[in-house]
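Run log, item B.
One chain of 74 residues. Sequence copied directly from the ordering sheet:
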Amino acid sequence: MARKMADCRRFESDSDCTLTIIGDEEEVVRTAAEHASSVHGHHDTPDLREQIRAMLEDEGAYVPGTRVAEPFPG
């Protein structure tokens, strides 16, 4: 099974968060939802977890250093 990545550097944010989470899909979704809740003020809901799942990238997309941020969808 391919590992997945959630990369906060991918999206613009008020906190300029640089966290990148890489692991098995369920681990990444769970950890990213907890992070989105505790750091970014989102509510950890099933909808949030589905949004996170839809934004995951394959771990091979990881690039060290900075990344040009894009607007957050929605």
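Observations after the first pass:
- The chain has two helices and three strands.
- The beta strands are 4-7, 20-23, 57-58.
Flagged for discussion on Thursday.
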